[in-house]
Amino acid sequence: MNNLVDSFLSYQAAVKGLSKNTLEAYGRDVLKFIDYLEKRNISGIEGVKYNDLLEYLTTLLDEGINIRSVARNLVSLKQFFKFLLLEKIIVEDPSLYIKTPKMKRSIPGFLSLEDVERILSSPDPTSYEGIRNRAMLETLYACGIRASELVNLDLNSVNFELGYLIVYGKGSKERLVPTGEKARTALKDYLALSRPNILKSRSSPYLFVTRRGEGMTRQGFWKILKAHAIKCGINRKISPHTIRHSFATHLLERGADLRTIQIMLGHSDISTTQIYTHIAKERLKEIHKKYHPRS
Asked: N or C: which end of the chain has fewer CB within 10 A?
């Protein structure tokens, strides 16, 4: 069955153009299900029935796995069975009548403009790594891109003359995102002063590099962001996505329309972007409560 999983992932990569992270998640979910089948002595995938899949999902819930992760597992398995049906390996899809559970969409956390400014100003301007960190943080906030999109930028991604980034998002979809003057200045400083000294005699296609001459990883950048947040006295849970949420929220608060924010964030469906309207409403209620004399 492992060969089937490899074929499935190759199909998803070649035909659907899914990102590396999505493919890894699909692989983990499907392999976990196969391990479950083997423990129940179900050796062939064609022998899987509706009840087997339902019992597996129930088992995940019994193990304490949250509903969001169970829903993600089901999505992975539905795609797997669609592939098997397409390849005529199975004649009936056991996942067909199992609905993905609807989850209440939580309002994402974001930072105040003051906290963002503190983080952006915290890198050491006298060190090569500090100049790099400032450029990465400024770019993340100016463009609202994902951490994976940030670390995958290459030297051709930045157009200084027109003031935008070329970003490849989910499904390798290309989009153009404005950079803003401060981010462009930080990037120019990094490319002129920092990057050559970090790389020394080495070369790299990636825009943001480490002291080992390699491209920055998502995990590496996450650690950088956390360190600068702690340095500023921001002790709450924070991630690159917090900065992305802050980008969208601050734009909306200042009058940007949802459609424009959707394009910059790279959301395929505007319903995903609409979550930020809830943030704005909560923010208005907080301001009213704080400043209105009869609140």
From this structure: C
The boundaries of the domain holding residue 280 are 113-291
276 as an active site residue: the answer is: yes
CATH number of the domain encompassing residue 227? 1.10.443.10
- The active-site residue, picked from 184, 228, 245, 267, is 267
| Residue 212 and residue 133 share a domain | yes
- Whether 262 is in a domain gets the answer yes
The dihedrals phi and psi of 67, each to the nearest 5 degrees, come to -60, -30
Q: Is 72 labeled as catalytic in the residue annotation?
A: no
Instruction: Select which of 170, 182, 226, 283 is catalytic.
Output: 170
Length of the chain: 295
217 and 169 within one domain? yes
Q: How far apart are CA 18 and CA 10, in angstroms?
A: 10
Report d(CA 194, CA 139) in Å as an integer.
Answer: 16
* pLDDT one-digit tens code per residue, 192-201: 999 999 999 8
Active site residue 118: no
In the set 82, 118, 175, 241, the catalytic residue is: 241
Total number of domains constituting the chain = 2
Token reading at 152: 């995958």
Catalytic pick among 132, 134, 244, 245: 244
- What CA–CA distance (Å, rounded) separates 237 from 110? 10
How do residues 218-276 score in pLDDT, each as one tens digit? 999 999 999 999 999 998 889 999 999 899 889 888 888 888 888 888 887 777 777 77
Are 127 and 269 in the same domain?
yes
Query: How many C-beta atoms lie closer than 10 Å to residue 250's C-beta?
Result: 17
Active-site choice (134, 146, 228, 245): 146
Active site residue 267: yes
User: Is-contact 127 258, C-beta < 8 A?
Assistant: no
The DSSP 8-state label assigned to residue 87 in this structure reads T
The question of whether 195 is a catalytic residue gets the answer no
Based on the residue annotation, tell me whether 285 is a catalytic residue of this protein: no
